[in-house]
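Usage example:
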Amino acid sequence: MDAGNREQTEGTAPSPTLCYGCGIEIGAADKFCRHCGRRQGSRVAAWYHRPAWILFLAFTVLGPFALPLVCRSPLLSRRMKWVLATVILLVTVVAAYGCWKVGLAMIESWKALVDELGGAGAF
Ligand SMILES: [Zn+2]
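Running the assembly step on the lines above writes:
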């Protein structure tokens, strides 16, 4: 109940530090959660939970599959998670559209080539 109330008020204040595990507010310098005992902070966070790495992975190999990293990262506030997720999804859509257009262009040029070679005579 307590955690729920804190989550609702989160959007307004300069974002408080929340436990990676249970979501309860903790001190910014705490290395462990006082409630559930989970490790906290940027020092113990894995490299793939750092925003720069998440974006790098998203734009190179992972694409939309980087979204779970965004959700799980203890280094991002809820608002930053939304921003990153939106950016990744937008880039995914733009990239998918670009691939589709390139695919269409390749099919068109292939058709033109077949026509030039004599249409059905290619077979
Ligand atoms: Zn906790």
